[in-house]
Amino acid sequence: MCRWYRLMWILTVVAVVVLADGANAMATTHATQARHSHHHRHRRHAAGPVVMYHAALLEDADTGRVLYANNPNLIWPPASMAKMTLLLVAYDQIEARRISYTTPVRISELSASTHGSRLGLHAGDVYPLGELMKAALIKSANDAAVAVAQAVGGSVEGAVRMMNAKAQSLGMTDTAYQTVDGLPPTPNHDVDRTTPMDLAIVARALIHTTNLLQWSAMRTALFDGGAVVLHNTNHLVGHYEGCDGLKTGFTTEAGFNLTATARRGDMRLISVILGAPSNPQRFIQTQKLLDWGFNNFAKVQLFKRGEALPVHVQVEQGPLIQPVPETDLALVLRKSEVSDLKLEYSVPPVVSGPIALGAPLGQVIVHEGDEVMTKVDVVSPVAVGTGQILSSVPLPSVENTDRSTIMNDSLQENR
Question: Which of 89, 146, 323, 334 gives 378 a disulfide partner, CB atoms 3.0 to 4.6 angstroms apart?
């Protein structure tokens, strides 16, 4: 019996050992599978596509025609690109002669203590307003921006109100500023909001109504008589053909942003990149966008102000006259679209005199396929007698003209 019990005891111990080893093996297998599964999940995540931006926009700077858009109405923090509107407001005040570029600005404690990108200004120091504007634009100096705001608006809060009023007057309906420099009031919490479309609007205003590109086009500039060298935060300046602006922006929440402009020949483009993952990528993606625009589009001059149009209007008991456009008309078109462009001359065949110089005679309507792209008023280039064109004269006559030959000649000049 003792021998039998000893045998049973040995078999029981062996069984327990086998079961334990099996459990350990299964546990090891599950742990290994879990590690492998986690590793594969990590590898799949790492190998996935990296988002190079959250929004992108490309526009013709003259007409605002959108050439490319990806999330153009995305609400996003502008970061330091808020300074574009601040500088636009400052320029308005200079044009109104309320202040000037040479107006002395004393640096306040608030300005001197502003953090982030800065010049290192000291409270009590005095600089010309223009020097501070230049530093805010080129170096994106926050302390300089606060000093500009206080000089222009009396206080930061006053400048913010002016910025929001300017944004609304320009039609930037999705923009709201609470700062003058785009600096988050607390870490990782931006309070300013805008969109790519609104950023392109303020960029067009800076391009067409100010001379601030003279600074944004500088790769480096001297500040305070050469005491400091300002290095442009827009690395495309001096490296990308035709780039002469405009403004970078970065915060943790916003990522790396850039509103840029470049001109080649008679065509100027504006690009906006929001939320790029790195400093180099905002410039790489902007360059790709601008390259695509310059490679695929051309500016076509349709006619110039005062140019005689190929239609005639008979003045009753008077001469035939050729209407002229009231303004220049040039469009940025995809190179493959030029031959699809048609001009419709909506003018009357006969009008009652007398006709005053510059009296309205109708319109030129520009079509691309079935789409109306734009309209331009046409007027009389001469006076016939005195008085105005009779308002009762209808405008029934429509003459369609294909100006492909003229436009193709213009296209060749843009290549």
Answer: 323
CA 309 – CA 345 distance, rounded (Å): 9
CB-based contact 87:212 (threshold 8 Å): yes
This prediction has a pTM of: 0.78
- Domains by residue range for the chain, with CATH: 55-296 (3.40.710.10), 304-414 (2.60.410.10)
DSSP letters, 144-161, are HHHHHHHHHHSSHHHHHH
User: Tens of pLDDT along 153-165?
Assistant: 999 999 999 999 9
Per-residue pLDDT at 410 exceeds 80:
no
Sequence-distant (≥ 6) Cβ neighbours of residue 86 within 8 angstroms? 136, 145, 148, 149, 152, 159, 163, 180, 181
Task: Give the pair of three-digit tokens for residue 11.
Answer: 């078999």
Confidence of residue 49 (pLDDT cuts 50, 70, 90): low
- Provide the residue type at 203 as one letter: A
* Strand order from edge to edge, sheet including 55-60: 66-70, 55-60, 267-276, 255-264, 243-251
Bridge partners of residue 320, in order along the sequence: 314
Q: How far apart are CA 71 and CA 57, in angstroms?
A: 8
What is the phi/psi pair of residue 349, to 5°? -70, -30
